[in-house]
Fold these 2 entries.
Entry 1:
Amino acid sequence: MNRSLRATRVGRERRREGLGGPAKAFDSPPTRFNFKFTVHRTCAWASLAMDDLKAVRGAFGCTLNNVLIAVCSGAVRSYLDRHGELPRTSLSASVPVSIRKEDELDDYGNRITWWFVTLATDVPDPVERLAAIRAATRVARASQTARQSETLVEEWMDY
């Protein structure tokens, strides 16, 4: 409980100092993607060449996760625009990220947390969109580090 209260306090302090925090959970405009699930939901798969993703990562000095989020964001943006449903404000997403430390790489199990990040679907230019996503994930990482939130989920599960 103390760590949860500390995390809340740190978030308030970061906002007060103008450092910001991750995107707010469930703060996206309504679209066909954020309504109740029905039996009519479908999903799609795509394959991307890892070398292509790494080339983009290298060219823009970001992470593979940033590139993948930007690719998915671009696909969502194009889809909604094609259907006349592109909102003026950005969608956000809950993104799973590993918090495994170097000395835990061979350990069994998962160590993950979730970051709420903007998808920058309101940004038409793909390079600018990638830059916005990169900035958002940096803020999410800094916020997580400041809150020491890697153990919050485990703490909550103990209650």
Entry 2:
Amino acid sequence: MNTKHPKKIAIIGLPGSGKSTFASKLGKILNIPVHHLDRHMFEPGGKKRDKQEFIKVQKAMLEETCWVVEGCSFSTFEMRFAKADVVIYFHFSRFVCFWRFVKRLFNYEREYGGLRAINRELLKYTWNFDREKRARIEELREKYSQTDFLIFRNQKDADLFLTRLLNSR
């Protein structure tokens, strides 16, 4: 990474890969605000928020002096990529993500991000994520080459990053 302690971090990746948990831990270590896009994208009851309202909320987040923003809203991904010091891509195995969906079904009340159901759309989105999103991710990596881009392929990569960050303090 170019900066010892980044102040603006965008986290993307497959559903179920652990972005939300990682973002919360990272925010605590760096003592900076964490924004979970799903909390702003959906209204209570699961109804999707108006797109313009969602964009407005996200722009306000990105104007803060420091932040961790996690989520897979690819329609607004460039906004985050353009402002981030670091983009972290959780590129975990689809099967790991599917297993985590099953585990989250039983933890709905205990943790944020619990699932009420696993549906065909979620499975299809997760299965096709890399194939459908890779070109756009690469395009933005080239366009914003000043932004550090890290790929975590498994939980060990994510845990090692946090450990190194803690040890560098």
